[in-house]
UniProtKB/TrEMBL annotation:
Highest taxon in the source lineage: Bacteria
InterPro entries: NLP_P60_dom, Papain-like_cys_pep_sf, Peptidase_C40
UniProt lineage: Bacteria, Bacillati, Bacillota, Bacilli, Lactobacillales
Annotated family: Belongs to the peptidase C40 family.
Residue ranges of the region described as Disordered: 22-44
Sequence ranges assigned to domain NlpC/P60 in this UniProt record: 47-170
Name the UniProt record assigns to this protein: NlpC/P60 domain-containing protein
PROSITE patterns: NLPC_P60 (PS51935)
Keywords tagged on the record: Hydrolase, Protease, Thiol protease
Gene3D superfamilies tied to this protein: endopeptidase domain like (from Nostoc punctiforme)
Organism: Pediococcus parvulus
Amino acid sequence: MKPIQGIQATSNHTRTLSTISLKQKGQQIKADSKPEKTAATSDKTSTAKYSDLISLLKKQLGKSYVYGAVGPDTFDCSGLTQYIFKNALNKTLPRTAQTQYNAFDHVSHSNVKPGDLVFFSYNGGATIDHVGIVVSGDNQMIDAQDRGVIKESYMASYWKPYIAGYAHVTDLD
């Protein structure tokens, strides 16, 4: 969690805090709000189901990769993630891999769950260059890349060195 003008709350306290007032600035900030991370996101009002996400995701397997494409016939990596979350869960993700990386809380590899995003950087973390959707507990993802939309291991020798992190987008049943 980032400090707010010198005030920092740990993640286990954010649910118990409702508002922090900064009298010298006359500012009120909800402790559980993340304006810099949620401006481009929206949540589905009903329960989000992994089965909905994976069902739609599997229907995209074999489709072609086109840089900048957002579906439904061709995709780039972040176009695929954006399309899947919007159409399966009614959750709007930002457009690029970098903005998706910036938008959500990060989790460790040991806490990754199906439905989370896995991000890659080809320049040591200076930029986020690729994203995939984790689809199983055995390090599998579905992503859109030069071989099209495929299922593969993100721990494969050609992906693992480039893993920049993981993000939890939404809770899934």
